[in-house]
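R.M. (postdoc): so does anyone remember the format we settled on? I'll just put the structure tokens first.
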């Protein structure tokens, strides 16, 4: 009985470890896409339901070509079993004015058990909020 319980506990830990590793992998892929200006690639990591409900136009993607990301830094992280959040600070340079500013952004993630992967649920950062 004790051996069976220990086996179940270890299996649960392994599953949690896999989910955490998958979350970290998806967050790394997303942050790399943002840092390198691959906003279409980052958009592919957004939850398909969100992409379908709020599709981005070619014009919206073109707005992202006006900026260069100069920094991407995690300020805080709250991983969970089925959801996770990360507070991010992003340095942004306007390609036309060369003015640099800092934007704070909260990433919200959810785990999709069917697909066994994490999806971003908040969409891409709005670098123009408050302008």
């Amino acid at each position: 009985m004790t051996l069976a319980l220990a086996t179940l506990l270890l299996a649960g830990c392994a599953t949690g470890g896999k989910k955490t590793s998958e979350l970290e992998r998806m967050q790394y892929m997303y942050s790399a896409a943002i840092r390198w200006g691959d906003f279409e690639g980052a958009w592919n990591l957004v939850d398909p339901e969100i992409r379908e409900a709020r599709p981005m136009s070619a014009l919206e993607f073109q707005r992202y070509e006006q900026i260069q990301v100069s920094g991407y830094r995690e300020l805080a992280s709250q991983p969970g079993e089925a959801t996770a959040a990360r507070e991010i600070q992003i340095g942004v340079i306007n390609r036309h004015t060369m003015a640099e500013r800092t934007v704070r952004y909260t990433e919200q993630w959810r785990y999709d058990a069917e697909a066994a992967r994490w999806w971003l649920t908040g969409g891409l950062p709005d670098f123009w909020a408050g302008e």
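R.M.: ...and that's the designed sequence above, right after the tokens. Also worth knowing: The chain has a mean pLDDT of 88. DSSP finds four helices and four strands in the chain.
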